[in-house]
Design a protein that fits this description.
The protein has about 250 residues and is α/β, with parallel strands linked by helices. It has one domain (about 5-254): Vaccinia Virus protein VP39 (Rossmann fold, 3-Layer(aba) Sandwich). The chain has helices at about 5-10, 25, 35-40, 60-65, 80-90, 140-145, 160-175, 195, 200-210, and strands at about 20, 50, 70-75, 95-100, 115-120, 150-160, 180, 215-220, 235, 240, 245, 250-254. An eight-stranded mixed sheet has the order 1-4-3-2-5-6-8-7, sandwiched between helices. Strands 9-12 form a two-stranded antiparallel sheet. A two-stranded antiparallel ribbon has the order 10-11. β2 (about 50), α4 and β3 (about 70-75) form a beta-alpha-beta unit. α1 (about 5-10) crosses α5. It is globular and about 45 Å long. The protein starts with a helix and ends with a strand. Catalyzes the formation of N(7)-methylguanine at position 46 (m7G46) in tRNA. Its EC number is 2.1.1.33. InterPro entries: SAM-dependent_MTases_sf, tRNA_(Gua-N-7)_MeTrfase_Trmb, tRNA_methyltr_TrmB_bact. It catalyses: guanosine(46) in tRNA + S-adenosyl-L-methionine = N(7)-methylguanosine(46) in tRNA + S-adenosyl-L-homocysteine.
Length: about 250
């Protein structure tokens, strides 16, 4: 039997690698470590990479093990899921991993300008009904600009045709520089895609077994230039998440 939510939350209160600041706690409270993650937590001057919507933290931990010279922070509001990655990182003594439990809408309250070099968006909810909630929307990109270095890198890895299509339109419409792009990551022979293909989460393997292609996009986010939403209709996915079909009768959305 899996450990209960209350027990997991109790565990994480004792974890040195977990920082819990949901919106209700930090609405008017400054985060003291903002701008000081390297010296106060990681104790080094290595680059910082975020995974936004990290879930169980499989990807955050996997990246940290693969790149010990880089600092990784997994961000999510679901603490019971985050417990898995935080526990693994603690048990394995990974010093280049941290987890931040908060709402991604206020992510810029936790990092100072130029403090972060890269962002991973791994299997984010496509939010087909609400563009403002998509983690690759201009609404969120404007927030990322507040702490991401100029021309910092954003990785999108998704099983969702809708989210991949939307993000590609958004990137192209705003003329954001693209390094890599594919609709089928695991059929790529180019070694440039090896980093994105090197870690496979549990649900990712389930989606692959179901016959879903994994899409991947690596692009840069300059500080300069206004960002606009693409005005296009995009075909909706047939499903909302693993084992669940979409509820809406609509066929497309912006």
């Amino acid at each position: 039997m899996s450990k209960g939510k209350l027990a997991k939350f109790a565990d994480m209160e004792t974890y040195e690698n977990v920082f819990q600041y949901p919106y209700s706690v930090v609405s008017d409270v400054p985060f003291a470590m903002r701008g000081h993650w390297r010296e106060q937590y990681f104790k080094n001057n290595n680059p910082i990479v975020l995974e936004l919507g990290c879930g169980k933290g499989e990807y955050t931990v996997g990246l940290a093990k693969r790149y010990p010279q880089i600092n990784f922070i997994g961000v999510d509001i679901k603490g019971a899921r985050m417990w898995t990655g935080a526990t693994q990182a603690t048990q394995e003594g990974l010093k280049n991993v941290a987890f931040l439990r908060t709402n991604i809408e206020i992510i810029d309250r936790f990092f100072a300008p130029d403090e972060v070099q890269e962002i991973w968006l791994t299997f984010s909810d496509p939010q087909m009904k609400n563009p403002r909630k998509r983690l690759s929307s201009t609404y969120f990109l404007e927030r990322y600009r507040r702490f991401l270095t100029d021309n910092g890198i954003i990785h999108l890895k998704t099983d969702s045709n809708f989210l991949a299509t939307y993000t590609n339109y958004m990137v192209d419409h705003n003329h954001l520089p693209v390094d890599l792009r594919t609709d089928d990551l695991y059929k790529q022979e180019n070694q440039a895609f090896a980093e994105a293909a090197s870690i496979q989460t549990y649900y990712e393997s389930m989606w692959l077994a179901r016959g879903l292609n994994i899409k991947y996009l690596k692009f840069h986010l300059p500080h300069e230039g206004a960002l606009e939403e693409p005005n296009v209709e995009i075909e909706l996915d047939d499903y909302r998440s693993y084992h669940r079909s979409k509820r809406s009768s609509l066929e497309t959305a912006k």
